[in-house]
Amino acid sequence: MSSGNDQQSEALSKPTFSEEQASALAESVFGLKVAKVQPLPSYDDQNFHVYASKTKDGPTEYVLKISNTKASKNPDRIEVQNDIIMFLKAAGFPTSSVCRAKGDNTASLVSVDSGSEIRSYLVRLLTYLPGRPIAEIPISPQLLYEIGKLAAKLDKTLQKFHHPKLSSLHRKNFIWNLKNVPLLEKYLYVLGQNRNREIVEHVIHLFKEEVMTKLSHFRE
Q1: Residue 196's pLDDT is what?
Q2: Segments in the chain below pLDDT 70
Q3: Sign, Cα dihedral of 186, 190, 191, 193
């Protein structure tokens, strides 16, 4: 998301599927026999933890991802994201697996009557990857080293990834793009006047002075 009106319009486009609707999607689109569905945290999309009935083989836990209406208008971006996941999986990274819909696609567009209009959402299914967020475990120098090592390996591996629609990932003023750190200045008021704000302001200042002046030399 970016800011201002764009941020508001995209927030309004966030899916609001119920657990029952998510369960029905997992069954009708991906052919799962669902035992239970639970909501997962999300930003501007909607995620569900799907528990499927046990089978002789194959996973029993999945993540159903429902893209917001704005993102759903760009299926190329979702396609590239899925292909990256499969590429990293094949390279040995501990990633989820991309599941195929009944039509053998890696994503499916579903239309829903919201009462005032028909809205379309791209849905996809990934295998559930168990684990704990870094924020929930004690941080140690060794852990930080391992994270950095993995990030470097990931970066090196992705240099080998090629896709004709790769440009679909590029979004101007996308706030989650690290090179757009200065865009965070407009949200500093949320922190109030405290030490945390001083730290963030200092980091943004350093980014402008030390990184932005060298961006043209970095690989995208």
Answers
A1: 92
A2: 1-12, 55-56, 58
A3: positive
> Based on the domain organization, do 19 and 48 belong to the same domain?
yes
48 closest CA partner among 126, 131, 130: 126
Q: Which helix (H) or strand (E) holds 202?
A: helix 195-206
**157-184 per-residue burial string, b: 16 or more CB within 10 A, e: under 16:** eeeeeeeeeeebbeeeeeeeeeeebebe
* pLDDT for res 56: 67
Residues 30 and 81 in one domain: yes
Strand partners, 110: 121
Summarised one tens digit per residue, pLDDT across range 190-201 is: 999 999 999 999
CATH (domain of 27)? 3.30.200.20
127 shares its domain with 188? no
Which residues have C-beta within 8 Å of that of residue 136, sequence separation ≥ 6?
none
Domain of residue 111 covers 12-140+158-169
